């Protein structure tokens, strides 16, 4: 007799006895690390590297009142770069990546693996058997355990955590719009320093043309962009470092006394409120620091650390000290301190101007690449509408390009540049976006340090107090400039937050409806092997979001169609909170009902770095996994009795038995069905909120989520399903 408890077991149980076939990760060679460190210059460090173009002019928008203020501002710049960029990001944040991925969603995935805060319940404890699923048990009675339990019990805290992550993501996307605008506009202003006759309109048009060219280049991929841009940024850092040393020697060799933090106290003592407001300009010195972490998936932690400590950090310090030395002598030139500090001989000025302009274009690459990475993670975790994601490198999975996002960023960036026209207002907006995402990263890292790293509570609190209070001070300084352009990132962030939260809410409601209305397996068994209808040759793949159980769309199909395929498989494509799932561990299959029903259930597991291929590889891998399952099942007895499992890569041989012969017959039947073709059956669902639902739920589901589903790419496009083998089944969900 068949027991429903035996049949309807979660697919995740299959992973319990699986031995991983994945080879241990290879150690990256020194040569590869050096190569990646060089390439990272062109992708990661352009933004922070071009900050010297506009930092001092934004610190002193009304001019320098006292020469010693330059020392105070320089001291603030040096310690801000050291504490936040070097200590927080290079030494701490890069160690908290998720299997080579960085950014707010990578931190969120780490937290989801250790704390049950993922609102879509298609996970199972045995997913931890994956080789890429790093997990560390939390000791009971520890501070980490208390925080973990509090998060798991409180839905309010879970929603706050989700909103925090989505807010950080919104700010990163805002960076992708603002960074190109301020970098390019600041660089082309060098024309006015050399030729006063150049008009503002000419500078604006030149900046817009450069920005269009930058976004058009994104389609060639991060690797090629980095290969082209890295030599330019390399020369740029050498140039600003050499200019810094030159200005120190020529104008004020005593500038090193600014390393004494006492000048910071004296600066605030003189400037008071104006000094506090100037922190918004100081913070621009580290505008590209978040890209060090967000772009981690494009390179490696060691390569980013090597590039920063070996070249970027010393060259930046030399550049800022050199400008400060120049301003100590000529404080009236603060509005264009960088270009005016360059020797005016044509052999020096114009090469530096060309390199500066090229570097400013490249500077935008860091935030654009970070935007692509974090949106890809958000799509995989169900927090962003489906978009086309293109892998631009076969070697590095994290290097992606998203066409829709690229063109939307370009339009937004052009509008911001043409609308503001001046770097001062763009800088005010840019500062809010950058410090916002940094503060979110600090809060998430504190949770990672406590729950996952299980560091001492006092150490975690010290980290939170030092960096949280520092970044909170900066954000308080930039928020006072809301009326002067700071409203832009707030508006962008609010809009994107609403979009992402609406999408996530609709996805969660849809999954809950399918879970509550899944088909009874007892009902299926009572239909008999023929399911009460004609069984046609071929394989039918029913796509569902349920990790176990039969979706309601199946009963809807049986009610309206007179025939069904001879082989049926319910496919659940689910993304786990891991960076990648090896192909050897991707497919897990179970049988539904007795052998003569020829019905199966398969969980296809992906990480947020994995992508569906655009060829027949998925169909072939799935079919081979099914044949391997049937072969293995004959070795150990039926899965429903033995509760054993099979991975797609596992092949077992044995002496022929009666079970083997049945297996061979079923294998031949599968082969014939494969030749007859595969049909992909997907639900074309329409979601409606019940009339008794609250006003906000009706707005979110009937208008917000429905609109987003209409304009985003369908599941068939994301999964690269051929149109000629696709069958849509219309169904209405009243949630």
Automatic annotation (TrEMBL):
Membrane spanning residue stretches: 36-56, 76-94, 160-182, 202-220, 227-249, 276-294, 306-328, 348-375, 396-420, 426-450, 457-480, 486-503, 523-543, 563-581
Subcellular locations according to the entry: Membrane
Pfam family for this entry, one: K_trans_C
Keywords: Ion transport, Membrane, Potassium, Potassium transport, Transmembrane, Transmembrane helix, Transport
Major location (coarse): membrane
Mode of membrane association: Multi-pass membrane protein
Entry annotated with the keyword Membrane: yes
Cellular component, GO, one term: membrane
Coiled coil: none
Domain K+ potassium transporter integral membrane: 37-525
Molecular function in Gene Ontology: potassium ion transmembrane transporter activity
Residue ranges annotated for the K+ potassium transporter C-terminal domain, each copy included: 537-733
InterPro entries membership: K+_transporter, K_trans_C, K_trans_N
BP terms from Gene Ontology: potassium ion transport
Keyword GTP-binding annotated: no
Domain of life: Eukaryota
Stated role: Potassium transporter.
Family statement drawn from the similarity comment of this UniProt entry: Belongs to the HAK/KUP transporter (TC 2.A.72.3) family.
UniProt-recorded name of the protein: Potassium transporter
Classification lineage: Eukaryota, Viridiplantae, Streptophyta, Embryophyta, Tracheophyta
